[in-house]
Queue: 3 jobs
Job 1
Amino acid sequence: MDKIPVGVLGATGAVGQRFVQLLADHPWFEITALTGSERTTGGVYREVCRWVLDEDIPEAIGEMTVQETDPSLPAKILFSALPTRAAKSMEPELSAAGFVVCSNASAYRQEPDVPLIIPEVNGEHLGLLEQQKANRDWNGLLVTSPNCTATGLVMALKPLDQVYAVRQVFATTLQAVSGAGYPGVPYLDIIDNIIPNIPGEAEKIGQETQLLMGKFEAGKRVPADIGLSIQTNRVPVIDGHTVNMSIKFEKPPTPEEAIQVLREYRGSVEIADLPSAPDKPVLVRLEPDRPQPRRDRDTSQGMSVTVGSIRPDPLLDLRMISVVHNTLRGAASGSILNAELLVSRGYL
Ligand SMILES: NC(=O)c1ccc[n+]([C@@H]2O[C@H](COP(=O)([O-])OP(=O)(O)OC[C@H]3O[C@@H](n4cnc5c(N)ncnc54)[C@H](OP(=O)(O)O)[C@@H]3O)[C@@H](O)[C@H]2O)c1
């Protein structure tokens, strides 16, 4: 098929660069527009972008001019890596103008008619687009991807919830510096240190977990009712968010049963053939010192969440640790998978 023209909004940032890297060779999508703030618009991408990834900037994309974010962009799908404030004002304008907007920003994740999607976990929530169509005078649509840490938490919990019903979760996060964007956290604050405060993050993770784990009934999203206690920390890791969690279930599994369920989990069959879908959304490591961000974040091109240290918990039922690549599965790759799902369902 002819490739679908796509734009990347906020293409010079930490997540925007991942989009550029991933979309350069995508079988369905072709980058036709890149945008940035006033700082970079009008400049040549390779000159104005402080590229931080190991691979070089894709040749042809490096020569593109960074544009303003407005409805004249030559694209059908827009991948938004805008900061929250810019997303708040620009994403509805672009959706109204007819674009399919796949957003990484938190601005609209909790709107009742905006789907918040991890395709393997809750693809059926795309049904909210019917409400969105009825509520808003938009020629396009808006779909969001979750907070990167919520992604790592939910992808580890969902397989177990389906069988044993999760009731309570106590979670402590160890979040990489790339999660704060570029240039992000000052090095004098983070080297040789842990910062036990990421403003607003624990609330976002909690609320989004309830939405993602919730049901879709009679055209509406019904949030899950899970007790959550979350503490967030920024740690001196470049990429990869770790979540240490203790879980209480309605029907507690043994560690062996939990391992088997996580290993057998494939998520929704609908997505198996999408180009960015991993064979296994969740991988289990049995070594006592895994998962680790440096060793496990890139598994399946950064699309699988790795879970390990699955043990009995003396207070709740089970303990375990998950690692997710925050700018891949937790941001750009997750958003591209959402767009692939929209295409396969005929939304374009
Ligand atoms: N980092 C992660 O792990 C992660 C994970 C999930 C979701 N997210 C979300 O993804 C979004 C991007 O995060 P990030 O980490 O990539 O941030 P970032 O590194 O700070 O990048 C922000 C990007 O937005 C552009 N920008 C800023 N103001 C703009 C405006 N008014 N109009 C157009 N473009 C504008 C910047 O362009 P200039 O370079 O031209 O200033 C830059 O390209 C945020 O909403 C964040 O919450 C991030």
Job 2
Amino acid sequence: MEDFTTLTTDVLVIGAGGAGLRAAIEAAASGARVDIVCKSLLGKAHTVMAEGGIAAALGNVDSEDNWQVHFQDTMRGGQMINNWRMAQLHAQESPDRVYELETYGALFDRTPDGRVMQRAFGAHTYKRLCHVGDRTGLEMIRSLQDRVVQLGITVHMEWTLTRLLKEGERVVGAFGYNRVDGSFVAFRAKAVILATGGWGRIYKVTSNSWEGTGDGVGMGFEAGAEVLDPEMVQFHPTGMVWPPGVRGILVTEAVRGEGGYLKNSENKRFMLEYDPKKKELSSRDVVARSIYKEVEAGRGTPHGGAWLDVTHLGAETIKKKLPSMYEQFLRLADIDITKASMEVAPTIHYAMGGLRVEPETGETTLPGLFAAGEVAAGLHGSNRLGGNSLSDLLVFGRRAGGAAGAYARNIRLGRLDERLINQEQQTLLLPFSGEGTENPYLLQQALQQAMQDGAGLARDEKGLKGCLNTVLELRQRAARIHAPGSRRYNPGWHTARDLRFMLTIAECIVRAAIERRESRGAHWRLDYLEKDPALGKVNFIAYSDAGTVKLKQRPVPQMPPELAGLFDDAASPGALKSSSTAAPEAKRIPA
Ligand SMILES: Cc1cc2nc3c(=O)[nH]c(=O)nc-3n(C[C@H](O)[C@H](O)[C@H](O)COP(=O)(O)OP(=O)(O)OC[C@H]3O[C@@H](n4cnc5c(N)ncnc54)[C@H](O)[C@@H]3O)c2cc1C
């Protein structure tokens, strides 16, 4: 066995995005010693890229807003396969989490009378997104990071953890490598929190950065945790299209929230037809499909998308409300959006699926292992509403951190199993020592293309089965991967391990997508266009059976009557009108 360093802590947090930082703060507040590990530098992560805002029913702009309406919007957006308890906690606790962020130093945009400003966003009944221009994630990460530094929490940057270590069924640590010099490290911890974000990089066209390879879900799956609804992958309607080098980069929904119009090649606002009520602010799945249909009907833009126009808002508003978008298009596409339309098309953006967790604590199906943020699943059902991720990170990051801290108080450190460490070292070193000749980048590209083509926005049985065959073939080829060079600064070597996670998750996505023979939320089956009421009552679970991906169904948790009463159709959620993809109007109830 190669040498490795062993570090000991109470709570190990893997990931330094919004969920990881908020979890670490809470675990530290409960008296635990906390260590955070992240693949890149503190202050990076996807959270910093978030633009549009944080959804919380403060009622500052629309005073009728309250947690119940937010809860209904979230459930309806997810087409009722969400975990109702997570949606309830999220809607109830988001306002406090936003105000708390201001106590850490965040400063949101203000209403004229000095309250936190809120903007409209897709499928939210009221103006609900608290924001800082279109740089909300930056403000959020900056203030959380300041708090982490104040609390003296140790952050290990540029380390990748790749294997959860168990004693029996209990997770007692994790193993991985330093990205700079390739040295190995083992963490011994009383509790582990996964906050590793999503898996957008499994696809070719995505808004996600290189970090979004699904490591946490991969590690959890390999250790025996359950993966919920992996087939639910969000296609954000508006990513950049041109020039090719920027394809997929996000064009925030705030552009439509501030009043932007989507138009086809005939200069028509086509959303007026697809969803006359909510128009451009329909839910993301509806808008993404509408753009797809316009392109299919021959009314797309030159590079296969739609036009997004804000010129009618005036240059001053655009530069004040959407400064990042203004700069993004000017710098990357040489387009001044105060004078010309943006060309946009759907881009893979968010994983609604992820590790199955307990709503109150974020505990996964493995003792000692907690998860929060995009790596966890349940809150968003089959489609996430914009802004609901940032509030998810705060609400469930705090809950997971508190629960992990409490768990750590009452348990001893576990024993690290050298056999598991040895196995992981062999897996990591295989690209140097094996006989293989497969190039990690080429395999990754082949996977991304296969997923884009076969498990993309519009799916059918034939495409999905073809995609599954490719994924299985790539899994075999990945066993013969070769990375030239040494362990120092070697991204090819890093990609070799990332790829294993990506392939496993891709298989989970495709197998579940084949089995969900209906259209629901982000999952659009051209061969099953309607909702199936029976499938509206189940979530799919992917799990490892001696390393093989297996699927099972689990009943969607039943809402208590007082919450079910908020929906006319909750008694048979699968029967939500399938002819209309738009969410029905939320029921108004007193605060
Ligand atoms: C461009 C863009 C704009 C968005 N805008 C909004 C918005 O306006 N509102 C909204 O609600 N949502 C938005 N989202 C979604 C939201 O930003 C993400 O869902 C959210 O930030 C995810 O946070 P997280 O803490 O779960 O993970 P991330 O922020 O992705 O952080 C993951 C962390 O885990 C670390 N990590 C990963 N793997 C490993 C490993 N193996 N070992 C060690 N560390 C690891 C990473 O280094 C990183 O620190 C946007 C997303 C994008 C990409």
Job 3
Amino acid sequence: MDAIECIKTRMSIRKFKPDRVPEDVLMKVIDTAKWSPSYKNSQPWEAIIVSGRKKEELSRYLVNLLENGEKPSPDIEEPKSWPAENEKRISALLRKRSEITGKDLNDPEVRKKAKIANFNFYGAPHGIFLFHDSSLTTWSIFDLGLFTQSLMLASHSLGLGTVPQAFLTDYAKQIKEFLGIPASKRLVIGISIGYPDMDSPINSYRTERVSTSEIVKFIE
Ligand SMILES: Cc1cc2nc3c(=O)[nH]c(=O)nc-3n(C[C@H](O)[C@H](O)[C@H](O)COP(=O)(O)O)c2cc1C
């Protein structure tokens, strides 16, 4: 698969087969992602891959926090509102998802279940958490975004599925404690990874993009 095909065919996977990914394959994914560019080659990324019993335990812990009404406190603030053009695209996504699942995503119970599915890593055998030192600036968050995309593309080219999940950062403090990560680190993103279950309807939907002419202007 060439780079353009890889970028265009990657999609977020929200149902995985339970089969574990061999450790050398997970290593290859990280080993590839580390070739991402970063501000002054600072390489600010640190990854924790959680699997097996520990992953199950973490899922239960996160679901319990949610059930007990613990307020989310991510290290990166959740957006409170969006500019109108972005809001329009978000609404289109939610409408399409509601159509596919037959569930109203504005219903708080449905939203809670969606969060629980996130905390269960959508059935993936592994979760990847990306951190960096919390004294780092927005540029280093940018770098982790590049690392995340490289990781997802490397995974896709190896037949793996991924989904980046801001929801997996909701309880950042508790996750860091659970994983033995110093509080001085910033949890930037969680990513579920595994073999995609392409028979699941949730994986049948490809998100859309606005036309290219809407996002680029050539000036000379
Ligand atoms: C920073 C970031 C946070 C995201 N958080 C979540 C999340 O918490 N749960 C989820 O299911 N998808 C999450 N997504 C996936 C987006 O919904 C998805 O990338 C978008 O709808 C485009 O779809 P695609 O990835 O299939 O192309 C996130 C994506 C990004 C880049």
